[in-house]
Amino acid sequence: MSMEPTTKISGSCLCGAVQYTVSGPLRSVLYCHCEQCRKTSGHFVAATACSNEDLQVSDDRDLRWYRSSPMAERGFCATCGSSLFWRPDDNYICIMAGSLDRPTGLQASGHIFVEMASDYYEIADGLPTYEGGDPRAWADERE
After folding, report:
1. Is residue 90 part of a domain?
2. Cβ atoms of residues 34 and 6 within 8 Å
């Protein structure tokens, strides 16, 4: 998966109670159609990712974490409910692309967990699709 160069980009929840900065490369945006993403967002999710060390949360007074599966947890704002992060027990964190301040300079690169997509929409943008998670979804190209 391609890493988009970035120097510094900021983001936040809807109400501004949780604010963060990314100071490193971001993965291209993946659209996730898994049931958990659909249930937490109300639709499929558009997410990028970065190394844990490249994410700095400057204001986290309302950041809450929910263990949504044995392998990961989801970060959200306790005040406005914005979905912000998906954090596996690994060395990276996924960031909901819509929470980033514009311009992001990011591009979408594919759809994952398409077998779980709901029946009210079609995936017809021509991007690659994967029945499960794309095995290339996170590649630490700095190694």
Report:
1. yes
2. no
